[in-house]
From TrEMBL:
Residues 446-458 have a biased composition (Low complexity). It catalyses: a 1,2-diacyl-sn-glycero-3-phospho-(1D-myo-inositol-3,5-bisphosphate) + H2O = a 1,2-diacyl-sn-glycero-3-phospho-(1D-myo-inositol-3-phosphate) + phosphate. One of its GO terms (cellular component) is vacuolar membrane. This is SAC domain-containing protein. Component of the PI(3,5)P2 regulatory complex at least composed of ATG18, SAC/FIG4, FAB1 and VAC14. It is a peripheral membrane protein. It is found in: Vacuole membrane. It holds the Pfam family Syja_N. PANTHER family: POLYPHOSPHOINOSITIDE PHOSPHATASE, SAC DOMAIN-CONTAINING PROTEIN. The keyword Hydrolase applies. Keywords: Hydrolase, Membrane. GO terms for biological process: phosphatidylinositol dephosphorylation.
Amino acid sequence: MAAAAAAAQEAEPACLQSFELYESASRFYIFGTNADKTVWRLLKIDRSETSELDIDECSTVYTQAEYLELVSGLDEDHRSTGGVKFVTKFYGIIGFIKFLGPFYMLIITEQRKIGEIFDHPVYQVTKTSMIELANSKSRSSFLNTRDENRYKKILNTLDLRKDFFFSYSYPIMRGLQRNLSDPQEGWSLYESTFVWNEFLTRQIRNCLQSTLWTVALVYGFFKQDKFAISGKDIMFTLIARRSRHYAGTRYLKRGVNEKGRVANDVETEQIVYEAVPMPTEVSSVVQNRGSIPLFWSQDTSKLNIKPDIILHEKDKNYEATKLHFENLRGRYGNPIIIFNLIKTRERRESMLRREFDKAIRIINKLFSEENQLRFLHWDLHKNSQGEPTNVLDVLLKVAFRALTLTEFFYCQVAPPTGSETAPHWPALLHSHDPYFCDENSNSDISQEDISGSSDSSGNGTTEDKAETSELPQLKPPIFQKGVLRTNCIDCLDRTNVAQYAYGLAALGHQLHALGCVESPELGLGAPVAHHLMHFYERMGDTLAVQYSGSAAHNKIFSAKRGHLKLFIRSQEFFRTLQRHYSNACIDANKQAAINLFLGYFQPKQGSPALWELESSSEEHNNGSFGHTSDSIKRVNSDGSILSVSNTSISGCSGCHNELLTAAQPDVSTELQSSKMESDLVYENEITSPIESKMSNSRYTPTLSHDHIHDVPSSQLDPCNSGDSNFLDLEWLSNSGNSSDERSLAVSTPDAHLSTENVISDIIPETMENQVAGVQAQKLPEQFVQWVNNGDSFWF
């Protein structure tokens, strides 16, 4: 028995993956074990204590036989009060929450494997349960059970079975480059921007100083599949991670908050490696989307599909906008490339475009040359009015140029070690001081250690690898430095098309680096391009449902597949109606559930209830509210109340109270701080709501044209379809796609060139002036007007 215990003690680092819950009259007992059930641990939860969470972890590590003996002994000890009863088997603790009465434990009772990364399984949550910790004696001391039940009902409307995923052994909340360059485990992983149950797990982590019993949930999208190319099976993984900061629904969360966090902030990563038992090469690339980082809002309207945009005249120095880009730099490094797709001639959007352009130029005056923001304002809608599919060619040209600046991640890895049930991470080969970004850092990031290029990494052929399969030739790693940040108004439909183009451009480089293709350029007609389009279309639909309540508008993808225009119009029509219904009738409930889950509203006796406030997370996280019979209809991106309404928490009269999962609020510490992002909820991020000064929706600020490097002055007209400081717009507007044009954009910088050399090496070609965008046959004018302006449902 001693030898068995010693063996179990050695195996202790293996993560717990399966749990059994037992209850007695006074305690809950949780037994946790690893995948092969060789190690068992015990957790005890006191049921008589109601004001605090009383948890005790037994330090002993048990074998399978000892676990069975212990259960039998506990049953005997509690025989006088009914013994110990088995409750349920489960697969991880999501966290603990308290409303007005007892604590509740949220657990995962069913899961489904959806993929794996280096033999580390990734699971989707498919069923959960909420266990009340109080026993019958302590429960009787609670009052106001009606409000308690209402809070439980609100929380349960956040469907954790949709798009929440986790891994026991792979840090799925972090990118592959960061995981290989800067491996971390345990506590620090929960401080990530992308762990949605950080608040719910905070008390148990503080109590036990351990993360052994909990799982870190990521909200977004995960899809993995194999495809064959050049005789190789390639594993392709697409991951979208939603930030938990400044979370919310479409019209209840817009723009930026005072700490630089934006609404609908999503990190997208695509990972590529050969689908073999122990791959020796891997590549990934990361891009970002997020709401325009200004203080702006829109009112929910039951009669107007596209309500006016209201731009607020606070923060004239764009401090919050500056904080946002400093945060991005801390996460991804330099350069930050802004790809803004909003309209130039549409009344609502053009005002926001001009203000965003002004903010970028003013901020660039404050940044050093190394930290300059690269930007491109390009009206995707205007340029797709002809043949929608041709816009993909232009987006690809932008993507290739952006990729020359940010590059992508590629490295060779040593085979992982460890047992089959608890494999260790593969080691990064040839990793002399690898470059990586600290998500919580806000300091300037040196790029002196960056080396490698797609050219240097892609010289190996299939034959070369066959000859050196046992000891592959070492190639220098490539590290992504910076990120492409794409936005439109909602950061859903147009943004997703642009992200697909960037993903396709990057995939060609990734496959080239892995030795699967001879050229890093993949055309839109390649079979793998159609496969990738399906991935991005699925991701776009998923993210759109989470934020806006309907699938994405995919008319460009549909047109690329050759769907009939009538089919495309019908699909767009019904998705617009579905989105409008969700925004007007469901989003208030959605927002309430998100605020409870993320801890931005914590119920307290004697304070206004959540349904009395009925607002965004700012007010829910503020303790200075008085009682009022009116409910808050809408909240600006900065937390100011626009108007008051008598609408109930269920939304509009007669609307179905179905709830969809959504995005997230903000709760981080100051960006300048080097502290962890544990973002204590008690340190309220939002000040009390004050009536904000707002400008007229037609407000058009004066443009500043400083720090424009490549763009002729004739192209700075706000009505132009584009404006950029990192590529030439004449070259971009040319609709040709010859291999000579592409080759300039495709070529990755030499390994020995600095970022400055790379930028100066991009020389605009001499092109004939053409009308910006691609001109072809137009969609019916009435339908275009309805889709873009939302003036009415019919003509």
